[in-house]
Each structure stands twice: as structure tokens, then as C-alpha cells.
Design a protein that fits this description.
The chain has helices at 13-23, 30-37, 42-47, 93-107, 122-130; strands at 3-7, 53-57, 60-69, 76-84, 112-117, 134-135, 140-142, 145-147, 159-164. It is α+β, with helices and mostly antiparallel strands. Helix 1 (13-23) packs antiparallel against helix 2 (30-37). The relative contact order is 0.13.
Length: 168
């Protein structure tokens, strides 16, 4: 089985929402997984499909990455949301999706890629560090990790990352 990476399209939106609602029930209730899917509105695929990617295996979605080039920071790009089918985690698929995004961002003249995650998501923190992302200093710390308190609103702390892609 080989996966095929392609540019995302607006028509992929419902598949991505369904994947989030299904794939995240291993760590969340179905209601919480549905709420999480709201982080990927259709407009992201209407306006950022050129830097968002779908991985397919045997005609089904195996993973996705939603990313965009910063409109205000000419050297920056941002990975907003990444998902991989739980049966394919640790297969290197997420790494391939990120590499595709890094190439697209670098081709557009971007030098840095940013992303955030929840302080409770130790798997995401470890993955991003393995991918070469650096932790951005925060205003507090949890389990040795810098945290930005109230980053996304009161009570919504985040761990922030940045990776230099200028030497790809």
C-alpha cells in the first residue's frame, strides 16, 4: 500500500470533518471530536488549498494537513491542523505531509513554519520536536515545556513551535 499526496480541494472538507470526528474518538468523546472538527472550516479549503494536502491510500483519505502562508509575515508559514488515520500513525505519513508543506512554503520564499498544540498533548509535543521544531519560550512552564497562558483565550494555553526551513 502506498499513499499518494495531493493538494487539498474544497470538496475534501466533509471528508476531513468526518475523519476528525472519527479519528479523535480514541482520545476524546464523540461530542468533543465534533467540536474539534470546527477548527477546520470550509473556508480554509477555499482560501488555503494550495498549501493544504491530502494523503490517500487505496482511494480513501489516510491523512491531511491544513496549512497556509502568513499574509502579514512574509517569511512565515503556519501549520494549522494535521490528522493521520490512527491505524497509520507512526508510519511516517505525518512526516511526509509536513515535508510537502515545507517544500511548498520554501518555494514561496518562506523561511519559518509555526504551529501550536495543547500542553496536554505530549504526543504532539514530542512529534514536533522530532521534526526539528523548536519550542518558543512562554510565560509559564508545564512538565518542563514552555507554555503560553491564555494563548487562544482564557484557559486555552498553548505550546508554540517554530522551525527554520530556509536550509531545506
Amino acid at each position: 500500500m502506498t499513499d499518494q499526496l495531493r493538494q487539498a480541494e474544497e470538496r475534501d472538507h466533509q471528508r476531513i470533518v468526518a475523519a476528525i470526528e472519527s479519528w479523535w474518538t480514541d482520545s476524546r468523546s464523540p461530542a468533543a471530536a465534533r467540536e474539534l472538527s470546527l477548527l477546520v472550516p470550509r473556508l480554509f479549503l477555499q482560501h488555503f488549498s494550495g498549501t493544504s494536502f491530502i494523503a490517500e491510500q487505496d482511494g480513501r483519505m489516510a491523512g491531511f494537513l491544513i496549512g497556509f502562508l502568513s499574509a502579514d509575515r512574509a517569511e512565515d508559514a503556519y501549520v494549522h491542523f494535521v490528522g493521520v488515520d490512527p491505524a497509520l500513525r507512526r508510519s511516517g505519513l505525518a512526516r511526509r505531509l509536513y515535508a510537502k508543506f515545507f517544500d511548498a512554503a520554501a518555494s514561496a520564499g518562506r523561511r519559518r513554519v509555526h504551529c501550536v498544540t495543547s500542553p496536554a498533548n505530549s504526543g504532539s509535543i514530542a512529534f514536533h520536536q522530532r521534526m526539528g521544531f523548536e519550542l518558543v519560550p512562554g510565560d509559564t512552564e508545564a512538565d518542563g515545556v514552555p507554555v503560553h497562558r491564555d494563548y487562544d483565550g482564557r484557559g486555552h494555553d498553548r505550546v508554540c513551535f517554530v522551525r527554520d526551513i530556509s536550509r531545506l
